[in-house]
């Protein structure tokens, strides 16, 4: 028997379906970046601008790497993967913000929410793993320059990229399995601009212990600490190799080859560390939302600028493509 009771949680309306003594949420309502009415137009324009810049910049980098033979190197192969991940992740997270503003409908169906909950963390994990792969590429380029093309051959690059993509999409599966077992929620309003795991856990009245343990172990250890550690070790070895170079010109040239990647690493990991160090209170949901916005919007927007503004190869490839138009 289906019934549609409603109850008030603060000023929020909670609609639920009771089926076989279980409480299920038919849809969720996204609170968005801010619920202040006066800010909605500004947020809409800002998000739309960021999305267009991100999509345009990463699409340009991706197409240049695909079309220009001189960019068919291991470093740009990984950069192409990073640009593709940035485009996918930004589209999945930001597309609802302008659509909600235009339509006035902030609701998202349960299947769509679960799909976002699976794809977005998977893509973020993929991005961390690809950045780790790029750090290994920079390590080989600086510490073993004579054997670089022998080690970083097409087969190894393809294998590393495949492992990064597959691991990212596998490690989130236990989250979704445990999440689908939740049968009780105190509200259906998600304090976020996309379906995120943290606010969903906080508003669930089911037992979340197992999921929280999985997040602490698998998410923190496998999803963050291992990529950070591998990247950190790579750069320790890179710095040690650079310091052993006798000439200042050689040291400067070696550092230049990894400066763009190092900038992205510092930017991304600093944000992630700050996000994990936020206080565990309900107010931390707003902090989590701000850090998430920076990770899924600002960092992908800056990546093409960081890799292209200082990169002679990318600028030369862009000039060659423009001459052919």
Give the SSE layout.
Elements lengths: L5 E4 L2 E4 L1 E3 L2 E3 L2 E4 L9 H28 L6 H21 L1 H8 L3 E3 H34 L4 H4 L2 H17 L2 H7 L9 E2 L6 H6 L6 H35 L4 H29 L7 H26 L2 H13 L1
Parallel strand pairs: 5-7
Antiparallel strand pairs: 1-2, 3-4, 5-6
Helix pairs in contact: 1-2, 1-11, 2-4, 2-11, 4-6, 4-9, 4-10, 7-9, 9-10, 10-11
**Overall spatial form:** globular
Distance between the termini: 64 Å
- Average pLDDT works out at 83
Number of strands: 7
Low-confidence stretches: 1-22
Strand order of the largest sheet: 6-5-7
Rg of Cα set = 22 Å
Helix content: over 70%
Percentage of β-strand residues: 5-15%
Class from secondary-structure proportions: mainly alpha
Count the helices. How many? 12
Biggest sheet record: 3 strands, mixed
Q: Which H/E pattern describes the elements? A: EEEEEHHHEHHHHEHHHHH
Please summarize what this structure is:
This protein is mainly α.
Describe the model.
- By secondary structure, this protein is mainly α.
- The chain has helices at 40-67, 74-94, 96-103, 110-143, 148-151, 154-170, 173-179, 197-202, 209-243, 248-276, 284-309, 312-324, and strands at 6-9, 12-15, 17-19, 22-24, 27-30, 107-109, 189-190.
- The strands form three sheets. The chain has a three-stranded mixed beta sheet. The chain has a two-stranded antiparallel ribbon with strand order 1-2.
- A hairpin with a 2-residue loop joins β3 and β4 (22-24).
- α1 (40-67) packs antiparallel against α2, α4 (110-143) runs parallel beside α9 and α7 (173-179) packs antiparallel against α9 (209-243).
- The N and C termini lie far apart (64 Å).
- Mean pLDDT is 83; it is low at 1-22.
